[in-house]
Every structure is written in structure tokens, then in C-alpha cells.
Amino acid sequence: MSSSAEFRMDQLPADPLLHVLSFLGFRDLVHCSLVSRRLNELCRHNPLWKRLSCKHWLLTDADRLQSGVSWFCLFKQYYRDLGRYVQYYPVLKSAWEQLKSFLQLRCPRMIASLKEGATEVELNDIEAQIGCRLPDDYRCSYRIHNGQKLVIPGLMGSMSLSNHYRSEVLLDVETAAGGFQQKKGMRRCLPLTFCFHTGLSQYMALQPAEGRRMFESFYPCPDQTAQDPSAIDMFITGSCFVEWFTGYVHNVVTGEYPIIRDQIFRYVHDKSCVATTGDITVSVSTSFLPELSSVHPPHFFFTYRIRIEMSSSALPEAACQLDSRYWRITTSDGNVEEVQGPGVVGEFPVMTPGKVHEYASCTTFSTPSEYMEGHYTFHRLGNFHNV
Prior knowledge:
This is F-box only protein 3. It comes from Larimichthys crocea. InterPro entries: ApaG_domain, ApaG_sf, F-box-like_dom_sf, F-box_dom, F-box_SCF_Substrate_Recog, Knr4/Smi1-like_dom, Knr4/Smi1-like_sf. Residues 6-52 form the F-box domain. This protein is an alpha+beta fold. The chain has 3 domains: 9-83, Monooxygenase (Up-down Bundle), CATH 1.20.1280.50; 89-253, SMI1/KNR4-like; 267-380, Immunoglobulin-like (Sandwich), CATH 2.60.40. 29% of the residues lie in helices and 29% in strands. The chain has helices spanning 14-21, 26-33, 37-42, 46-57, 61-67, 71-82, 89-106, 108-111, 120-130, 136-144, 173-178, 241-253; strands spanning 114-116, 145-148, 158-161, 164-167, 169-170, 189-191, 193-194, 203-205, 217-222, 232-238, 259-260, 263-264, 268-277, 280-288, 300-310, 320-331, 336-342, 350-351, 356-365, 370-380. A 4-stranded antiparallel beta sheet has the order 6-8-9-10. Helix 4 runs parallel beside helix 6 and helix 7 crosses helix 10 (136-144). The chain is globular. The protein starts with 13 loop residues before the first helix and ends in a 7-residue tail after the last strand.
């Protein structure tokens, strides 16, 4: 009686079993395939591996048709090649595809600078050359694209002032290995980016040394108050490669970073930094410049971009001209500085319905965070005394 009532899951009809199997990850699905001949057959069911191939390798029906093999075989092919990166691949591949789609529309010449992905052998050779292990998220990204050619503009963003220009190239792994640091103060650090104009690079720490955490990215900053020239401070930009890269891509593709003259400018716009008075709206974007800043002594250089816009629905008689500006700067230790003067960067823009005026300026702070607020004064063109 008890033996005739014994229940075996693999004796269920195919449809409910396939439904159960559809909830499994690829590792569990492989384990189930080893239980019995019937489960082995069911675990090769094409729709199961289509879902997993789409999830982990972002493959499409077109990819499967082009390969000429089943979804199960296609998944195995990708896993043999990229299996060690399965944790990172869908995130990084998606980021690269989003970035390329955006660049194709907004900065098409950057697309041509991207290099084909590196091979496993090439990445292994680089590890042997520098004597350090590369993190898997970095390796995964470089399997997709091996950085970019050494051209301007750089993929990792630009910044421009009247007498200063920065544009960071995403280094290919061979060039990065050539800049691998062994000197005191920068031991075991691999450059991620490089700017031809400033010599600036962002680095990734491949080992926890000299106060750095493993795999965090940073801009190095010499301690100008120390007797030892190897004393290095850091402006940290990410805790790991995948965070550093995907965070940047998110800011690009969502429009957080503006595109100016076919380049990605790393201005950050705080949506709370917008004010409207009558028909005039003013918004602000800011950017920190590590290459012009230092921790010791405390000197923090910021540039800001102001956008002044008159509503297109304003009446013609609302036209006005900017007369002066006023800024009130409060440091994190409570000190207040006031700045006022005529115009903006030597200009007195005339605002008419629908017109936009943008300008960039800069300031330095002695504390890491400060608060800057202020106002502009305009007069109506039809009545100078109507301010």
C-alpha cells in the first residue's frame, strides 16, 4: 500500500514540471538534469534556456538564429567563454549598449574610438605582466570593449574653462598596464583614464595598500604640506569598477551630464537649484575639478554653469537686460562671504521671450562643502527704472 502510493516528482506530467523548472536558475537546472533521464530531457527544454540566455547574456532571437544552435547550446557557448563574469556581464553589457545608443545619437564620433573587447589570454598576460590580479568586473567590461583609442574627446567626460581643458580617455588595458604604479605612495595602482592636456588620471587600487581599499577608484592628489613627495591624498570616485562605470553611464544616458560641442561635460545638475521669478528661470549645474584642488592645504576648486532662460510665453514688453549679480557663500564652518558686481563674466545679456543665456564661472572653497546662493538684477528694456 505504502509503496504503491509513493510519489516521485519526476513522474509528474511534463507541463507542471516545466513550470516548476522555469523558476530555477541555471545552476539548479543543471543539478536537476543529473537526477534522472526524464529530468535530463526536460531540463534541456529550449524555452527554459531562452529565458536564462536573455537574463544572463542579453541574447535575442536574432542572436540565436544567427548562431544556428539551440538556446541550451548557445547558453553553454557563452558560459564557456564568459562564465566567470556571469555576476557582472548583464549589468556591464547593458551599460555599454545604453551608452553606445546614446552616443550614436548625441556624440557619434566617439563610437569610432571604442576598441574591440580583449581576450581572456590578453587579460591573463596583463596580470602576469603587472603581477596583480585584475578584478572580475574590470575584466568583464574589457571583454566587451577594451577601452578606447587615445583620441579627444575622451569617453569619460570633459571639462572646460577659459584657460583650462580636461578630457579623460578610457584607457585600453595594454596602455593602462604601461602606467601601472609601483612607486611609493601609489603602489599597486592601475590607471583607468588619462587626459592629454592635464596629465590627470583616475586610478584603481589593485591591492589594499597605503590607506587605499582594494579596487576603489580615485584621483591622486599630492599632499603639498608634507615633506615627503610620496605623500598622496585621494579624491575617491568609486568603491569598485562596476559602480564607477555604471554610475557614470547612468549620468550620461539620463541627461544628467550635458552634451556641449559633441562632448560629455561632467556638470551635475541639482533639480532643487532652480528658481523662477516672473518670466525668468535660472538653473545651476556644478562640477568639482580634482586637478585644481588639494586636501592639504584645503583648496577645493569648483566650476558652475548658469542657465538663464526667459519663458517663450512672455510678452515682448517683458524683455530685459541683466545688470548685476550677487552671491552669498557660506562655508561648512559658518563663515560667510559676499560677492557682487556688474554683469556676468563681463557680459550683460539681453533676455527676450524664448531666449537662453548660459555661462560658466568658477570658485574655490576652503572646506569640502559650502553653500552658495544669490540673485541677479535686471531692468526692463522699455523702462530702465523698472528693475
